[in-house]
Amino acid sequence: MNRELPLTQNIRIDQPPFDCREYERAGGYEAVKNCVGKMEPQAVTQLIKDANLRGRGGAGFNTGLKWSFVPMGPDVARPKYLVANADEMEPGTFKDRLLMEGDPHLFIEGMILSAYAIQAEVGFIFLRWGYQLAELRMHKAIREAYDGGYLGKNINGSGFNFDLHMHVSAGRYMCGEETGLLNALEGRRANPRAKPPFPQVSGLFGKPTIVQNVETLCNVPGIVRNGVEWYKKLSLSADGGTKLFGVSGKVKRPGLWELPMGTPVREILESYAGGMRDGLKFRGLLPGGASTAFLTDQHLDVKMDFDSVGKAGSRMGTGTMIVLDDKTSVVGMMHNMMAFFAQESCGWCTPCRDGLPWVAKILDAMKDGQGQPGDIERLQLQCKNMGPGLTFCALAPGAADPLLSAIKYFREDFERAIPAGKPAAVAAGAA
Amino acid sequence: MLKAEEIREIEHELPLFPQKKAACIEALKIVQKHRGWVSDEAIQDIAQFLDMSAEELDSVATFYNMIYRQPVGRHVIHVCDSVSCWIMGYDQLKDALMKKLGVKYGETTKDGRFTLLPICCLGTCDRAPAMFIGEDLHRDLKPEQLDGILEKYS
User: Fold this and answer.
1) ipTM field
2) In angstroms, rounded to a whole number, what is the distance separating the alpha carbons of residues A113 and A320?
3) Which of A145, A155, A318, B93 is most buried, most CB within 10 Å of its CB?
4) Which residues from B are below 8 Å from A170, CB to CB?
5) Rg (chain B; Cα; Å)
6) Minimal Cβ distance to B84: which of A92, A168, A332
7) A348 touches chain B (CB under 8 A)
8) Per residue of chain A (431 residues), what is the pLDDT tens digit?
9) Quick check: A360 contacting B, CB < 8 Å?
């Protein structure tokens, strides 16, 4: 059976992406022609909502529902903004790169349709540093889309205007956080903002703003073109569509594949990534980047969709898995990740700014077998203090998730990192 | 003093934004492109040009990985130290680089050729470990390949 691959069907490995003409010949921009000025904007939002397109940046929020919070009508604050989050700095994540390098016009078409739905007149692509090829190809595609009349004034003769700009980030993990990204676009430090107000109402420069991940936006043209039923049938679960799944770590064939939403973990790991390298055993995996909790042997039949992975105690996140093998130290891996999160904390709130360096320091000693009695409990306490609701943004809770799960599933590794018979640490000066 | 060319490029960015200072990250990038790094004096000049305080601009400049507030070598090496690269042999790669270049992170070789810095995930995790030299991405790296790679950069 030929599976449909709406996200990657135009991508030819090691060849330049489709230009505007080639993209049109493949059916591209048809959705813009049939939608912009012809459908009610709210009807587009309803379509995306009914399709159950959930945010591919990791949070999995219903995209159409998010759009429905944007104030509509002639009297609302303007300009309204649509911002594509192309920051892709979540460790272990490498999916949006493929979409931007491989089919830039699909991404632009997704932005035009989404902007039309919320009646945004200005769009920004917030691109991470270091994606030079994506930058080059996006710039070229944006120029072509202007020349083709798909961007700019009076698109499709509809009276709808949409200008698209690109900002290349000066680089910081926090820019991937929705409100941090908006601060970065405004020329500030990428600290998170308190919510409410939510960006849908008061976002970039205080105006209504929708921020969506690249992959989410790339799903939109297919839905507008082929409808809700088609989109739902692509999936093996309740979440609509296909998903880019990736695997990194010591597997035989690390890589990235477009598969039905809900494809089981085992199938991705074994059929696509080829299983573990010879001589190595599987111990666990982070299903969607460094901010997601471990899945282990017992979870291999879990379907990769937002709800199923959630029920298994983790999050699907970005859907790009990081695999842990039996020869790699889980304590060392946690040290690497917590040092990363400690470094990338913006310092805005205390549990994150002070908690993460403490956690990283404890793990630094543990990875060398120099843990202290009570360290495991100290790590758990710090994770509790960084939990959801205690911080401004999801950075610290996202750091706590994998660490808590590592302690839960691989506790013996952490216990081995504390030398037996070692006395509890004494306060400085007590001797 | 900002050069005429720098001013022209910064002014080109201004119409995108409702506030002048919103262009400050672009302005920092532009000045760095021309000079290699952003000095205290440049911070003062850019801040004045964008109607913001030097302190506010410096708080932005020091926040971002790719704005250099110290001089760097002719080629900046950014080694990915995130988790997938770590699993695939980052430690050995980093140790080999430091030994070959005789510098630690944040330092520049005496001949001014290379500056060595760590960087978080480069988004090429299926081909780890990875590093940037200037704008060139090197992937699937092994320590024994380093000599051949480094000699291409004079």
Assistant:
1) 0.96
2) 27
3) A318
4) 25, 28-29, 64-67
5) 18
6) A92
7) no
8) 468 999 999 999 889 999 999 999 999 999 999 999 999 999 999 999 999 999 999 999 999 999 999 999 999 999 999 999 999 999 999 999 999 999 999 999 999 999 999 999 999 999 999 999 999 999 999 999 999 999 999 998 999 999 999 999 999 999 999 999 999 999 999 999 999 999 999 999 999 999 999 999 999 999 999 999 999 999 999 999 999 999 999 999 999 999 999 999 999 999 999 999 999 999 999 999 999 999 999 999 999 999 999 999 999 999 999 999 999 999 999 999 999 999 999 999 999 999 999 999 999 999 999 999 999 999 999 999 999 899 999 999 999 999 999 999 999 999 999 998 766 655 444 44
9) no
Bridge partners of A210, per DSSP, are: A82
> Which 3-state string (H, E, C) describes A392-421?
CCCHHHHHHHHHHHHHHHCHHHHHHCCCCC
What three-state secondary structure class fits B26?
helix
Which of B125, B135, B136 is the best mutation test for A, with the most CBs of A within 10 A? B125
- Find the closest chain A residue to B68 by CA distance: A170
CA distance A245 to A256: 6
| Helix%, strand%, coil% for chain B, nearest 5 | 50, 10, 40
Q: Which of B81, B87, B126 sits opposite A94 (nearest CB)?
A: B126
Contacts of B123 in chain A (CB under 8 A): 88-89, 93-94, 96-97, 128, 130-131
Q: d(Cα A270, Cα A245) in Å, to the nearest integer?
A: 13
Q: Which helix (H) or strand (E) holds B17?
A: none
Residue closest to A106 by CA, chosen among A164, A30, A176: A30
The C-alpha atoms of residue A166 and residue A188 are separated, in whole angstroms, by: 17
The contact set of B with A (CB < 8 A) is 16-19, 21-26, 28-29, 59-60, 63-67, 78, 81-84, 86-88, 119-128, 132, 135, 137
Q: Kindly determine whether residue B125 and residue A90, on different chains, have CB atoms separated by under 8 Å.
A: no
Q: How far apart are CA A45 and CA A47, in angstroms?
A: 5
Q: Domains for chain A: give ranges and CATH numbers.
A: 20-233 (3.40.50.11540), 242-325 (3.10.20.600), 330-416 (1.20.1440.230)
A-B Cβ pairs (cutoff 8 Å, strict): 130
Q: Which helix (H) or strand (E) holds B11?
A: helix B4-13
Query: Is the CB of residue A231 less than 8 Å from the CB of residue A222?
Result: yes
How many Å from the N-terminal Cα to the C-terminal Cα in chain A? 73
Which domains occur in chain B, in start order? Answer: 4-61 (1.10.10), 75-150 (3.40.30.10)
